[in-house]
Specification:
The chain is α/β, with parallel strands linked by helices. Helix content is 42%, strand content 22%.
């Protein structure tokens, strides 16, 4: 039985190029929105967890003293290194690392950030505690992720099609649970913002992870039922051409390390 980290590496190696090109990852307005919440003053040392193709790390590098990006997947790190090197960024570096066992000293960073990561983790609280550990007291931990319904059955319905699409998906967390995790990681949550403007087109979303035809058919069936009966809260919909979309609801949380 493969370890979950191996599942993550396999999934994101497979989808690395497509993931790095997808509009829900590259959207500049969304990137700027997240980075603005960090309230960077220019002197900070920042850690970007699960940096992927490095878009957040690159944006942060323009507003901070130093940025370190870490990821489990070498294929993602290669894209991040090549992109940032081509832009001549000298205050950014990348290295492989497991978010559950970060290779950094306590209080090594002023800001620690992750985007679209927590739903891939078997122990998201353990990772938030690691993020808090390597952040200085008074520093900032910032996370953006998709979130689930507060109703367990509706949240579970979303996870059914999310896992079929990407085996590295574990569980989409409701906002209430994320707030509890921030508290239990020693963070004082001082900013929460939700949005429903991320609307992946289903066929492109499926193509990104190269979903086999039988699983893709089941996902389409589940999403169509969701569209008709409102089973998850993601409100799938069709555009004028008949293409199917859904609302990947996202939340940004900012916490100040207090213990």
């Amino acid at each position: 039985m493969p370890q979950h980290n191996d599942v993550i590496r396999e999934s994101f190696t497979t989808q690395a190029q497509a993931f790095a090109a997808n509009p829900w990852v590259t959207d500049g307005d969304r990137i700027r929105r997240l980075v603005s919440v960090a309230r960077l003053a220019g002197h900070e040392r920042v850690l970007d967890i699960a940096t992927g193709p490095g878009y957040i790390a690159e944006a942060v590098a323009g507003a901070a003293r130093e940025v370190v990006g870490v990821d489990l997947t070498d294929a993602m790190l290669l894209i991040a290194k090549e992109r940032t090197a081509s832009r001549g960024l000298s205050n950014i570096s990348f290295r492989p690392a497991d978010a559950q066992n970060l290779p950094f000293d306590d209080a090594a960073f002023d800001v620690v950030v992750c985007r679209l990561t927590l739903h891939h983790l078997q122990q998201p609280l353990a990772v938030l505690r690691e993020m808090s550990r390597v952040c200085r007291v008074g520093g900032t931990v910032l996370a953006e992720d998709i979130y689930a319904s507060e109703h367990p059955a509706r949240a579970a319905y979303q996870d059914r099609w999310e896992i079929l699409r990407d085996p590295s998906h574990v569980r989409t967390l409701p906002v209430s649970e994320l707030l509890h995790f921030f508290r239990d990681a020693g963070l004082e949550t001082d900013f929460v913002s939700t949005a429903d403007d991320l609307t992946p087109e289903v066929e492109r979303w499926l193509a990104t992870t190269k979903v086999p035809p039988d699983r893709a058919a089941e996902i389409r069936r589940l999403l169509e039922a969701d569209r008709v009966h409102d089973l998850s809260g993601t409100l799938p919909f069709q555009d004028a051409t008949g293409k199917l979309f859904f609302h990947a609801r996202t939340v940004i949380l900012r916490g100040r390390k207090v213990s």
